[in-house]
Amino acid sequence: MTRSMLAWLTDAFGAILFASGLALFTTQKIQGQIVPVTAAGVIIVSAALRMFAQSMAAASGESRAAQAKAALRAPIVAWLFRQPPARHVMLGEAIADASDRVEDVHYYHARFQPLRRAAVIAPLMIAAAAAVASPIAAGILIATLFPFALGMALAGMAAGKAGREQLDALSRLSGLFVDRVRALPVILGFGAQDRIVRQLSHSTNEVAERTVRVLRVAFASGAILEFFAALSVALVAVYCGFNLLGLLPFPVPETLTLTQALFVLALAPEFYLPFRRLAAAYHDRQIGEAAMQRLAELNIGPQVQVPPPDLLAPPMLRFCDVVIDHGDRQIGPFSFDVPAGRTTALLGPTGIGKSSLLHALLKLADVASGAIMLDGQPLPTAGLGGAVSWAGQATALLPGSIADNIALGDPAASRSDLTKAADLAGLASMLADRAGGLDAHLDAQGGGLSGGERRRIGLARAALRNAPLWLLDEPTADLDAESARAVMDRLLSHARGRTILLVTHSASLAALCDRTEMLA
Amino acid sequence: MNDPLSLLVRDARLPHRSLFLQAGILAAAASIAAIALLALSGWFIVRAAMAGLAGSVAVQSFNYLLPSAMIRLLAIVRTAARYGERLSGHQAALRTLADLRVRLFKSLIAADVAATGRSSGDSSTQLIHDVAALEEQMVRAPTLAGAGAGLALVLLLVFMAAPLAALIAFIASALSMLLADRLARSAALAQDGAERALAQLRRELTEQVAAAGDIAAYGLADRMCERTMAVARDGDAHRLRLVRVEVLINGLANLTAAAVVAVVLLTSSATLPTIILGALAAAGGGELLATVLRGRMVPVLRAAGTVRLSAIAAKQAPPDSNTPKTSPSPASIILPLGEGSVTLRPGDRIAIIGPSGSGKTRLLETLAGWRDDALAIAIDDAPLRRPGRGHRGGGPPAACRTRLRCR
């Protein structure tokens, strides 16, 4: 039994307690007690108990939802980090999936699921309590369930379809509006505003009318629920009244007292309450299920954890007819060598695929054909992630100090190593002006950092690790010419003897390298 | 309530007033029937029991057929009225919203063309969300009015049983509304926090994905993932606070109802059937009070959206058409191309070629008047300049000057 289930059953128990309080009152009144304090006390306690139960149900529902979302989100986020950064459009959608779509399942788990389970047991609990006072009244409550279930099944088929159509119709209505808003420049360019306003007015009215027709059916299941909720109260009231009068047209094995009759009557509205709560959460279900279906279609396989490859000595790289697949287009083929222990600059016009070749070494770009060889062997299937010094066009930052962020390159580094790496990247002079220096705190978006500072943090990270292979993607893009030269001079001499492959547009940086490869 | 949005909403509602009224009346009928059903049932049972105990003469003199028929009738009225209310309420809201969307669209056209013309998908999505939230409020309005009518009946029945309890019920309801209004503000803060966390999640993910190279190279996936989950947990903490407020408001309503029931039982000097009538009416009133309290919370939660819509609604259409007035066929158009410029005469055909990002689209859009970049375009020797706007860039970008060539 889950906590939320327990909470909803406690809520049903509160309803039973209220009915008991009312029944107790009539007993006390009939016995001639003037001030029925106990009965009043029981009624207050029942309300407090229900408030506590509902609060518990909400809290446990929220924690269930948080857990479910975390379980759903973590693999998507991990998968996102393994995707080629060049595929912007696809990534934009996937980011919306990992943020907004995952949130869409919140109330499915927080409200709908617990209520669905509670709707099975809570009514039976109410009926069982009613049976203690009057088995026949309890029988009446349960008997209404059969036509109710039949009606819901019939209406459910129509209403389920109508409900989906309702969602469609509503989204058409707003979709039309969105479309015209987005096309506003074109509309204005052609001076068509009057015509479009007339058309929009006609279409939105038409869609509104269609939606109303759909709603007639969609609300049917709600009406059936409302009808049986009201009917169960009326039937129990009429049965109890005629039983007390002794005027029932058929013989029954029980003779009720007022106390018993009032107890059962007070329980009657509670019998359908769980179903009414569930019906109110129906929208949560539709949204949640649509989101879960969409997320399932992402089809994220299990992540295979591979230990990072060992690079013991500066390697030699060979690109043989490598074609990069960007999904919508392919680039290449590229063939060139990166000799061991040397610095190679990769040049070429924007968009030719230089960055993608670097990313391919980390398996962050798809190689459609050709091969990348590492010291004559094929590249490890998981790529060289974890084994290289890298500085890319964007620097990943975590909340923490600047030193913490540099230390991501080598968690075991000492403070003096960190200071040295920061100096190499030219951070020292920038940090001199900043309160806290290396220990200045950064938020996750690197708030307050300039583009040059971010870039230097990335370079300091690469210097700190000083792996046998360095991969640098436009390392000087955000730096002015003078500091670019100074930083790269220091870094290249620090990394002397390592294999360095760097992508650049800067002729002066290329001049510092041992060799250049021009991509065309 | 003279802000532009209320005026716009009022105008859009006007043709559908009778439908809103119908929905309100049906909602009132549904609430009243729900309260009366339970209260009358209680009264009937107690009367029946008293007649049954008093013997067959009393049973004969008790007109049991009328109340028992009423009970069945109320069950049917409650169902039919609720269905009718939902339908006509939605009908009224949907028709009004169809009108309102058109009116907002007109305001958008009147608004700064350049600004809206380039509005991203984000801002139009925001607009849709805000209008949808307005729709939700509009659908709820008749239900709220109906719940108010139901509460009036509750007060009346409680007054019949115990006048003191009715007074307490009135004061307690008013106090709970004041308290709910205060709670609504903290709920709005929590909701705002949750929305902010989600926006931050989106922003951070976008940055982290761009830095996937760093993450792969330094094996940061686990830590970055943990960071993302921490932001998500922060959002969940805000949501929990929001839900706690909602539960508290519900509980407040039910506790108020229970207190009134208790006071009825303790202080009533009426006959037993009347006491039960009042007590059961008060018990049913809890749900209605909860509806009213939640309804009061919605505008506070949607305040930000209302302000955004109001800003759009404030934009008035200028007296004449807002398309720029130019002569139908200009004698010359001077376009900045390459280092210099080129002059177009009527009948000229020109192809503009250049690498992506060099400003081809920008030139066309500026010429069409969709954006106001400070490009040196002149039509009939008069510089193309939208009046009353500052320059955003400082002239065409270097790339535009050097790489756009006219062949």
Assembly status = heterodimer
Percent range of helical residues of chain A: 55-70%
Which regions of chain A are unreliable across 5 or more consecutive residues at pLDDT < 50? none
How far is the N terminus from the C terminus of chain B?
60 Å
The chain-level structural class of chain B is mainly alpha
- What is the structural class of chain A? alpha/beta
Strand residues, percent of chain A: 5-15%
**Quick check: average pLDDT of chain A?**
86
Largest beta sheet of chain B, briefly? 4 strands, antiparallel
Detail the poorly predicted runs of chain B: 116-121, 318-327, 387-407
Mean pLDDT of chain B: 82
The pair of chains with the biggest contact is: A-B, 131 and 127 residues
Q: Tell me roughly what share of residues is in helical segments of chain B.
A: over 70%
> In one word, what is the shape of chain A?
elongated
Rg of chain B, alpha carbons? 33 Å
Q: With helices defined by DSSP (H or I, 4 residues minimum), what is the helix count of chain A?
A: 18
Secondary-structure blueprint:
The complex is a heterodimer of chains A (520) and B (407).
Chain A: H1 3-30, H2 37-80, H3 88-104, H4 106-133, H5 135-182, H6 184-189, H7 193-218, H8 220-245, H9 258-271, H10 273-280, H11 282-296, E1 317-325, E2 330-338, E3 343-347, H12 354-361, E4 366-374, E5 377-378, E6 389-391, E7 400-401, H13 402-407, H14 415-424, H15 427-432, E8 441-442, H16 451-465, E9 469-473, H17 481-494, E10 499-503, H18 507-512, E11 515-518
Parallel strand pairs in A: 3-10, 3-11, 6-9, 9-10
Antiparallel strand pairs in A: 1-2, 1-4, 4-5, 7-8
Chain B: H1 4-13, H2 17-54, H3 56-61, H4 65-110, H5 113-117, H6 121-161, H7 163-210, H8 212-217, H9 221-267, H10 272-301, H11 303-313, E1 333-337, E2 340-344, E3 352-353, H12 360-368, E4 378-379, E5 382-383, H13 398-403, E6 405-406
Antiparallel strand pairs in B: 1-2, 1-4, 3-6, 4-5
Helix pairs in contact in B: 1-4, 1-11, 2-4, 2-6, 2-10, 4-6, 6-7, 6-10, 6-11, 7-9, 7-10, 9-10
